[in-house]
């Protein structure tokens, strides 16, 4: 029965309980017929002190008959978000009163997992039985239990609020006539049953994309249908196809975006030149890797008094991609381009990324120019931004420029005209580099590698990348333009996305100082050290035999760089403010910075929405791209090593974990695991503070940075695991366990579900360079270089987020998937944490044989004001 509304359309009457809603004005602003706010509903249920029936709540709030449906949707949305839940009597309850926490599930390849509470409290261990109800990534309500025998808080899944997985990529298997899929994401340990008649024609052994029909529960495994046959596991390029689907990377442009791109002109039109400065007569040139196809930036430098006039011209993507259009929506969704070996997933269609927006030689292109006046000491005294039209005089490579600078007279006739300009660029680079040292930016010495491929797209060899002055020249010019962009927007008080890099946390600072104290060193700066303190210590340890070890420990003490609307400065680069301006073709934050600068120049304001949400999204897509790239690289390295079983190599210990040593090989730059059981007959104890394993009886110590000769004994393509043993039996007084000869990887059989792919460690810093591919493939060469590409961590393997403390007894660890940068290194100073954002590989417990659960026969939103 409907009650008469005293407030329809204008909100509740003064006598109504709804009129006491403190958020009534906000609800009225959002909706023509406002409902009680979520906060008010929660306060009423809390005041009741007992579970409340929905009908009783409606009566108290004078909910009309026509309001019943939207009010029900609001309650359902609150349940979905973990604000409310229903008990067995269908009454509304507060999760906090029921000792429930909202948390995100992180699965482990061995079948257990963790609930990571949203309130920041300690993680809860989820046993295999609890993990049967949910999948990795789901949002759940968990009840806090007691402590397990290892002292960990246990959790029990009370309700799954949000299912994170609707589509999964994996390999199809058949057992006793039952088809099932093993997910490529090893954190999803449940087998996915394929419903009868829903195999889509796929054959066992093929890689497929499945769509979940039913989610897992305590009594049933998930059931799915085959939505796409990706291909055969060993097909060329399959590793990339799997990574795209595993990490949900958008790789096909929607029709609307392609249509918009096709409608754009193929060249700059006369109308495009309105309001632009014509710099086509200046000898601007691009300098990139040999295989790069998208050119974001061009540079030019001339003498001005005792200093320099430096121009950095950046592709004006903002002229063609407008806020809210189809191209903009897709660019935001992707967040950035993804550079795989031999394949690029661009942020923008090729018509723009390699054509209209790319600063190709001998054609007119629209650009945004940062023009700077630089002193002989490398200080920027003045700068200005303006839209322009340019005409690149040459497409140069790093190698070519380095050779011209080394031997100017040997340059080809067509390049001779550019020699004076290149030498002027070298002079401004020297000035910038000197200023970098004086401000105390961190500069880690690192080694970069590049994969060389055969005709089948598989690795033929892995070679170190020689970093020359041309790389550093471009990097310093890009850093200067990025700093000017952040300063310009800050001076005009216009919101933007800054690239921030906070200093080390107190916990990491204490740990690194404890370690340094063990070797007689000290990190200055007190409770708030500066980048200069790190830089001075790095200079001090040069020439020490343990330099690589010390440098790795220092690098890992730094946080990750990320995007944020709040400027907290850039620790690694020693900048008070820093933003990404120089790569709008391949990074969405750069496009936003361009739009903000254009708005300021026009006397306007640019508002893309929630800057905080966009910053989080762009940081997330960046991490997603890094993880996908690492997966592909590790698979390719396994393919490369599969024919090297029983070969011996020299290497360096790149990570020490409780279950063994990760070793990076010198000649092939591949990382694998020596399990602790292969170190000799002794009890080894892990000391994370000293980064070592110490033998209890023998006193043998294995530390980060130790040199060792190993033998390759096992390579598994499906788990991307490479196992080593010491080539010489450890001197422990006991004989080395016999290692069976393995001539080929067990790729034809189903890999143990326990073999992990690796988990990223939050807050752990890895080689910035590990974040982006070589410029030869279009990677960054600016501040991101300084951050993501610049600081390359010598030891790529990292600590696991929690596996080291949580691996179940008797479970072997699996090899980590290290990330090796394909980009020429940049002074790691920038990187120091700059973009050293890509978390390194984590520790994972390894395959222990487990019984397969009996097969079962397959069976069987919020909207409005919510």
Write the layout of secondary structure elements.
Layout: H1 24-30, H2 38-48, H3 54-60, H4 68-80, E1 85-86, E2 92-93, E3 100-107, E4 113-117, E5 124-126, H5 128-131, E6 139-147, E7 153-162, E8 167-175, E9 178-183, E10 192-194, E11 206-214, E12 223-232, H6 238-246, H7 255-263, E13 277-278, E14 285-288, E15 297-304, E16 307-315, H8 326-334, E17 338-340, E18 343-345, H9 350-356, E19 364-374, E20 380-391, E21 394-397, H10 398-406, H11 413-416, H12 419-439, E22 448-453, E23 459-465, H13 469-491, E24 498-500, H14 506-518, H15 531-541, H16 547-556, E25 562-564, H17 588-601, H18 611-641, E26 648-657, E27 660-665, E28 671-675, E29 684-687, E30 692-695, E31 701-703, E32 707-716, E33 721-726, H19 783-789, H20 803-806, E34 813-814, H21 828-831, E35 844-845
Parallel strand pairs: 10-12, 13-20, 14-21, 28-33
Antiparallel strand pairs: 1-2, 3-4, 3-6, 4-5, 6-7, 8-9, 8-11, 9-10, 11-12, 15-16, 16-19, 17-18, 19-20, 22-23, 24-25, 26-27, 26-32, 27-28, 29-30, 30-31, 32-33, 34-35
Helix pairs in contact: 6-18, 7-8, 12-13, 13-17, 13-19, 14-16
């Amino acid at each position: 029965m409907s009650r008469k509304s005293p407030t329809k359309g204008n909100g509740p009457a003064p006598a109504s309980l709804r009129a006491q809603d403190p958020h009534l004005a906000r609800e009225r602003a959002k909706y023509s017929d406002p409902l009680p706010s979520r906060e008010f509903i929660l306060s009423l249920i809390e005041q009741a002190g007992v579970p409340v029936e929905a009908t009783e709540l409606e009566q108290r709030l004078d909910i009309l008959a026509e309001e019943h449906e939207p009010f029900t949707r609001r309650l359902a949305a609150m349940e979905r978000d973990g604000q409310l839940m229903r008990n067995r009597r269908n009454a509304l309850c507060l999760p906090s009163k029921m000792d429930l926490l909202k948390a995100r599930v992180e699965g482990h390849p061995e079948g257990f997992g963790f609930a990571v509470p949203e309130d920041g409290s300690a993680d809860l261990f989820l046993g295999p039985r609890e993990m049967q109800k949910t999948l990795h990534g789901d949002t759940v309500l968990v009840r806090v239990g007691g402590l397990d025998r290892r002292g960990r808080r246990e959790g029990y899944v009370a309700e799954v609020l949000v299912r994170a997985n609707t589509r999964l990529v994996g390999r199809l298997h058949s057992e006793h006539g039952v088809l099932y899929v093993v997910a490529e994401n090893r954190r999803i340990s449940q087998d996915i049953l394929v419903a009868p008649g829903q195999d889509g024609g796929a054959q066992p052994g093929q890689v497929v994309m499945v769509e979940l029909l039913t989610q897992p529960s305590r009594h049933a495994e998930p059931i799915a249908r085959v939505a796409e046959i990706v291909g055969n596991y060993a097909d060329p390029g399959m590793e990339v196809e799997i990574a795209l689907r595993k990490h949900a990377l958008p790789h096909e442009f929607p029709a609307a975006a392609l249509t918009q791109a096709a409608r754009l002109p193929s060249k700059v039109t006369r109308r495009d030149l309105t309001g632009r400065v014509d710099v086509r007569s200046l000898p601007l040139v691009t300098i990139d890797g040999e295989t790069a196809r998208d050119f974001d930036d061009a540079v030019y430098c001339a003498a001005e008094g005792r200093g320099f006039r430096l121009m950095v011209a950046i592709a004006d993507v903002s002229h063609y991609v407008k806020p809210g259009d189809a191209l903009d929506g897709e660019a935001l969704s992707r967040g950035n381009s993804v550079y795989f070996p031999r394949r690029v997933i661009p942020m923008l269609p090729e018509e723009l990324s390699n054509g209209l927006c790319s600063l190709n030689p001998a054609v007119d292109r629209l650009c945004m120019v940062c023009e700077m006046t630089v002193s002989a000491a490398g200080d920027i005294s003045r700068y200005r931004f303006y839209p322009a039209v340019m005409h690149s005089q040459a497409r140069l490579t790093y190698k070519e420029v380095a050779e011209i600078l080394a031997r100017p007279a040997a340059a080809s006739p067509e390049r001779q005209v550019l020699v004076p300009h290149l030498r002027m660029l070298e002079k401004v680079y020297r000035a910038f580099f000197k200023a970098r040292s004086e401000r105390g930016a961190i500069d880690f010495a690192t080694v970069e590698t590049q994969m060389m491929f055969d005709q089948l797209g598989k690795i033929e060899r892995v070679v170190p990348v020689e970093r020359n002055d041309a790389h550093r020249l471009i990097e310093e010019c890009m850093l200067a333009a990025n700093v000017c962009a952040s300063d310009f927007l800050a001076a005009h008080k216009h919101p933007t996305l800054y690239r921030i890099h906070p200093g080390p946390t107190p916990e990491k600072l204490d740990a690194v100082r404890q370690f340094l104290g063990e070797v007689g060193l000290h990190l200055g700066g007190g409770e708030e050290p500066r980048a200069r303190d790190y830089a001075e210590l790095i200079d001090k340890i040069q020439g020490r035999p343990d330099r690589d070890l010390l440098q790795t420990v220092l690098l890992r003490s730094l946080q990750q760089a990320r995007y944020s609307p709040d400027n907290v400065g850039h620790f690694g680069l020693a900048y008070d403010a820093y933003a990404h301006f120089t790569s709008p073709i391949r990074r969405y934050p750069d496009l936003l910075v361009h739009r903000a600068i254009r708005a300021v120049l026009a006397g306007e304001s640019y508002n893309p929405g929630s800057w905080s949400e966009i910053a989080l999204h762009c940081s997330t897509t960046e991490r997603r791209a890094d993880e996908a790239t690492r997966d592909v690289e590790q698979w390719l390295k396994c393919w490369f090593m599969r024919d090297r079983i029983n070969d011996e190599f020299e290497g360096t210990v790149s990570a020490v974990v409780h279950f063994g040593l990760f070793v990076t090989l010198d000649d092939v730059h591949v990382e694998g695991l020596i399990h602790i059981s292969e170190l000799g007959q002794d009890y080894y104890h892990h000391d994370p503070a000293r980064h070592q394993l110490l033998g209890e009886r023998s006193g043998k110590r294995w530390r980060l940075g130790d040199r060792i000769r190993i033998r390759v004994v096992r390579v598994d393509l499906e788990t991307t695991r490479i196992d080593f043993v010491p080539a010489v039996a450890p001197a422990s007084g006991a004989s080395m366990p016999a290692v069976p000869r393995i001539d080929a990887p067990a790729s034809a059989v189903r890999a143990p579900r326990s073999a992990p792919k690796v988990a990223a460690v939050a807050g752990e810093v890895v080689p910035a360079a590990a974040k982006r591919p070589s410029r030869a493939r279009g990677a960054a060469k600016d501040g991101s270089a300084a951050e993501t590409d610049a600081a390359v961590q010598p030891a790529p393997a990292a600590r696991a987020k929690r596996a080291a403390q949580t691996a179940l007894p008797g479970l072997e660890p699996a090899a980590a998937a290290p990330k090796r940068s394909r980009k020429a290194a940049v002074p790691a100073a920038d990187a120091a944490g700059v973009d050293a954002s890509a978390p390194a590989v984590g520790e994972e417990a390894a395959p222990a044989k487990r019984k397969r659960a009996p097969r079962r026969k397959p069976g069987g939103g919020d909207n409005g004001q919510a």
